[in-house]
Amino acid sequence: MKPLRNLLDAIHPHVVKGGKFEKLYAIYEMADTFLFTLGKTTKGGTHVKDQLDLKRMMISVVIALQPVLIMATYNTGLQANRALARLGVVRPEGWRGSVLANLGIGFDPDSIFACIAHGLLWFMPIFLVVQLVGGFWESNFALIRGHEINEGFLVTGFLFPLTLPPTIPLWQVALGVSFGVVIGKEVFGGTGKNFLNPALTGRAFLFFAYPAQISGDAVWTAVDGFSGATPLSLAASSGYTGLTEAYSWFDAFVGTIPGSMGETSTLACLLGAGYLLLSGVASWRIMLSVLVGTFVFSSILYLIGSDTNPMFSVPPGWHLVLGGFAFGLVFMATDPVSASMTFRGQFVYGGFIGFIVVMVRVINPAYPEGMMLAILLGNTVAPLIDHYVVKANITRRKLRNV
């Protein structure tokens, strides 16, 4: 690593203020701080609140996402290989089939290696497009504003592709991440100033702009000519009976079901949640209140029942393992920038999201997911929740001093 360190040190005088390439300092600083620990030492009196800075926070989230990434590649390949087996196809058409065949890798759904390899060929192009396009916008705004490139996009660049189906066109991926980064974050001033989660903002844009490529049954399995409904869509059309005939609760918990690439495995999300809670990055108040809000309200609707709406028959325990609930709960709702800041506000904020996700899923079965809209709506009311919590604290202190 020393030659690389020497190279960066040699470049440094040319990119600092007054140097020939000073406008490129943001690019240099991003590479330097990503590869090496900052060598500067704080001088004078300092007051350290805790050890968690932006870089550590973002890297902690990326580490917590690793089980989800592994499961995303495996399940994408698993669903595709299962579909090929049902269709009796020995080798799929297209460049992916050729690559795997040339490498001597088959399409056996019982082979973990074959499933991961096949899934990687669907996930990696989407991931690379997100990194290139999102990084382009992030770097350009940093250069124009003359500030450092922060680590905000690091997490968005991992979260956004995990919310997408494997068959989405790459140009739509580029458009979605552009909307999420530019409209969802940069127009408000960048990381720390946005009030909406950028990854969910980009996905919401794609959902409403191109619903056929992101919400149809055919998009969840990466095989041409194969259509497989997600558990939530089955529940919306056939209720609890249709859901359990196709999938078990354990399948949904582990994540071997159709869905967005990174949102199917509750188990993988729970592993990430454990790391985030132990590292102090995520709020347990938000996670707990979302769980309680979802379970309580879905229990009420389950007990009420309905003769016309099959979603009322889905037990509360199923809502916790279906769709993007676990993924949104762990990685989206707890976003420290767009979530409530106050401790009491976090309970209200989480309970509100839990209530809304069940409201959308059950009351409006035409859109059976609900988690994305619930979190975005929660983002919009989070500042209002915090405002009234702070106002109540001020009032209580005034009364205490009377």
TrEMBL record:
<feature type="transmembrane region" description="Helical">
    <location>
        <begin position="346"/>
        <end position="364"/>
    </location>
</feature>
<dbReference type="GO" id="GO:0010181">
    <property type="term" value="F:FMN binding"/>
</dbReference>
<keyword id="KW-0739">Sodium transport</keyword>
<keyword id="KW-0288">FMN</keyword>
<keyword id="KW-0597">Phosphoprotein</keyword>
<keyword id="KW-0406">Ion transport</keyword>
<feature type="transmembrane region" description="Helical">
    <location>
        <begin position="317"/>
        <end position="334"/>
    </location>
</feature>
<protein>
    <recommendedName>
        <fullName>Na(+)-translocating NADH-quinone reductase subunit B</fullName>
        <ecNumber>7.2.1.1</ecNumber>
    </recommendedName>
</protein>
<keyword id="KW-1003">Cell membrane</keyword>
<feature type="modified residue" description="FMN phosphoryl threonine">
    <location>
        <position position="230"/>
    </location>
</feature>
<keyword id="KW-1133">Transmembrane helix</keyword>
<comment type="subunit">
    <text>Composed of six subunits; NqrA, NqrB, NqrC, NqrD, NqrE and NqrF.</text>
</comment>
<feature type="transmembrane region" description="Helical">
    <location>
        <begin position="57"/>
        <end position="74"/>
    </location>
</feature>
<dbReference type="InterPro" id="IPR004338">
    <property type="entry name" value="NqrB/RnfD"/>
</dbReference>
<keyword id="KW-0830">Ubiquinone</keyword>
<dbReference type="GO" id="GO:0016655">
    <property type="term" value="F:oxidoreductase activity, acting on NAD(P)H, quinone or similar compound as acceptor"/>
</dbReference>
<keyword id="KW-0915">Sodium</keyword>
<dbReference type="Pfam" id="PF03116">
    <property type="entry name" value="NQR2_RnfD_RnfE"/>
</dbReference>
<comment type="function">
    <text>NQR complex catalyzes the reduction of ubiquinone-1 to ubiquinol by two successive reactions, coupled with the transport of Na(+) ions from the cytoplasm to the periplasm. NqrA to NqrE are probably involved in the second step, the conversion of ubisemiquinone to ubiquinol.</text>
</comment>
<feature type="transmembrane region" description="Helical">
    <location>
        <begin position="370"/>
        <end position="390"/>
    </location>
</feature>
<feature type="transmembrane region" description="Helical">
    <location>
        <begin position="111"/>
        <end position="137"/>
    </location>
</feature>
<keyword id="KW-1278">Translocase</keyword>
<keyword id="KW-0285">Flavoprotein</keyword>
<keyword id="KW-0812">Transmembrane</keyword>
<dbReference type="GO" id="GO:0055085">
    <property type="term" value="P:transmembrane transport"/>
</dbReference>
<dbReference type="InterPro" id="IPR010966">
    <property type="entry name" value="NqrB"/>
</dbReference>
<feature type="transmembrane region" description="Helical">
    <location>
        <begin position="286"/>
        <end position="305"/>
    </location>
</feature>
<keyword id="KW-0997">Cell inner membrane</keyword>
<dbReference type="GO" id="GO:0022904">
    <property type="term" value="P:respiratory electron transport chain"/>
</dbReference>
<comment type="similarity">
    <text>Belongs to the NqrB/RnfD family.</text>
</comment>
<keyword id="KW-0520">NAD</keyword>
<dbReference type="GO" id="GO:0006814">
    <property type="term" value="P:sodium ion transport"/>
</dbReference>
<keyword id="KW-0472">Membrane</keyword>
<keyword id="KW-0813">Transport</keyword>
<dbReference type="GO" id="GO:0005886">
    <property type="term" value="C:plasma membrane"/>
</dbReference>
